[in-house]
Amino acid sequence: MDIHEQSIRSAEIMAGMIDMDEEQFVVSSSSATDMEFDAVIGCIEDIIMEENFQQLQQSFMEKHYLEFDDSEENKLSYTPIFTEYVDVLEKHLEHQLVERIQGFNMNAFIELLMQHKDEVSGDIYDMLLTFTDFMAFKEMFLEYKAAKEGRGLDLSQGLVVTSLNPRCSKCN
Which of 27, 38, 123, 160 has its CA 20 to 30 A from that of 17? Predict the structure, then answer.
């Protein structure tokens, strides 16, 4: 049974009535399209958490992060880096989705993503955005560079530790 058939079967089951303690409850259901979309997002989450994807992204960023500067002007050298990033990582993601989901179509998924973007986890949506939005891509590199150079968000200055035990003389 492919993912489409599973989605339809699940929707049929969920649309039915469930008899519990002689009372009838109607379970809300999602459309088959919504269930397919959720299944694709689940696969994307699995793929981007896998070591292979993480290594691809990490090695790509390590190779190119020094090229990026936090300025309003974008260097011409950013364009081929962006193109290579899309070629390497988006193609890897698409290949994995085609292998895992029978009949997967990236263009159809992108259309669904635009319709359901408010329903997608921020981290997943942000990562997918780096394939199509150059500024999101550049921001990802600038954050990586800041972390590599130790310029990440430092909350240590606002951190205060206070004992909850008033009898502890060494804690004051």
Answer: 38
| Pair type for strands 23-26 and 17-20 | antiparallel
Average confidence (pLDDT) over 115-137: 86
pTM: predicted TM-score of the whole model, two decimal places = 0.65
Q: How far is CA 69 from CA 28, 47, 63, 131, in A?
A: 50, 30, 15, 20
Burial of 130 (0-12, 13-18, 19+ CB in 10 A): buried
Is pLDDT of 20 > 90?
A: no
Q: Residue 40, exposed/middle/buried by CB under 10 A (0-12, 13-18, 19+)?
A: buried
The tokens for 164 are 């909850």
What one-character-per-residue DSSP string does 98-124 give?
Answer: HHHSTT--HHHHHHHHHHHGGGS-HHH
Residues 108, 38, 109, CA angle at the centre, nearest 5°?
10
Residues present in the chain in total: 172
